[in-house]
Amino acid sequence: MTAFNPFGSPALAQDSFDQEPGAAKGTSTTLHGYAFTGQIITLALAKGILIIGLIFGVLLMDDERAFGNAAILLPLGGGLFVVMLAGAFFVSKMLRSAGVTRLRQHPEVHAMHEATPANTTMAVMREEWIQWDNKSPLPLPLRPFLAGEQSATIVGQAMLEGSAVINLVFALLDGSYAHFLFAFLAMVGLVSMIPTTGKLRKRIEIAISPESIEGPRR
Predict the structure, then answer these.
(1) Are 130 and 205 in contact (CB under 8 A)?
(2) What is the mean pLDDT of the chain?
(3) Which of 13, 25, 180, 190 is the most exposed place for a label (fewest CB within 10 A)?
(4) Counting Cβ atoms within 10 Å, is residue 18 exposed (0-12), middle (13-18) or buried (19+)?
(5) What pLDDT does 69 receive?
(6) pLDDT tens per residue across span 77-99
(7) Nearest-CA neighbor of 31 among 141, 133, 157?
(8) For 6-10, 49-53, 86-90, which range has the lowest pLDDT when averaged over its residues?
């Protein structure tokens, strides 16, 4: 049985997985799988905001109560949106930075960073990782890295979803449709964080490229 070589080509990686008895070949081990899972989660969160917004909008139009809390809840909702928006991207960035640090401590990735022009083997391996086929099993060190990327995205999106839902509740309480604008902007921010194979590939490139740490070699 051929042992799995994390530096090998996608074809060799697939062969090694095929030869491993009972090896899991689910989409969670591929670049496409991580991106697709994140896209499903993103669309589900956005759909939830839309449905809640539509329901609350209908209830608000049929409500004949006299509202008088807009002076309090409107600035509170706007402030909450701004804080959550900044927090979502800041927290996501922190989590991603921690994931990059852990990946760079892996022996194989560390060797890539130490590669010199004379050591073309490591440079070729690094390029293979960057150009890895979307539907081939990923090298083992990249799997926890992309799982961390996925978690960072979900945390940021959850913060924005919370901001949107709270603003929709505020709209139901004070009758101000301005809260729907804050909820919509939060949803746009949430959707903008949707993962794609291109985004994930770029983050892999940044994480394993020596230029991202030391600057271009002269």
Answers:
(1) yes
(2) 80
(3) 25
(4) exposed
(5) 67
(6) 999 999 999 999 999 999 999 99
(7) 133
(8) 6-10
Q: Is residue 25 a contact partner of residue 137, using CB atoms and an 8 Å limit?
A: yes
Domain extent listing, the chain: 29-62+75-207
Crossing angle (nearest 10°) for helices 120-130 and 197-208? 160
Cα gap 148→142, rounded to integer Å: 10
Tokens 């402030």, residue?
79
Longest dimension (CA), the chain: 77
Contact 126, 112 (CB under 8 A): yes
Give just the sign of the alpha carbon dihedral 107, 12, 201, 139: negative
pLDDT in tens, 179-204: 999 999 999 999 999 999 999 999 99
**DSSP structure string for the chain:** -PPP-TTS-HHHHHHHHHHSTT----GGGSHHHHHHHHHHHHHHHHHHHHHHHHHHHHHHHH--PPP--HHHHHHHHHHHHHHHHHHHHHHHHHHHHHHHHHHHTSHHHHHHHT--TT-HHHHHHHHHHHT--TTSPPPTTHHHHHHHHHHHHHHHHHHHHHHHHHHHHHHHHH--THHHHHHHHHHHHHHHT---HHHHHHHHHHHH-THHHH-S--
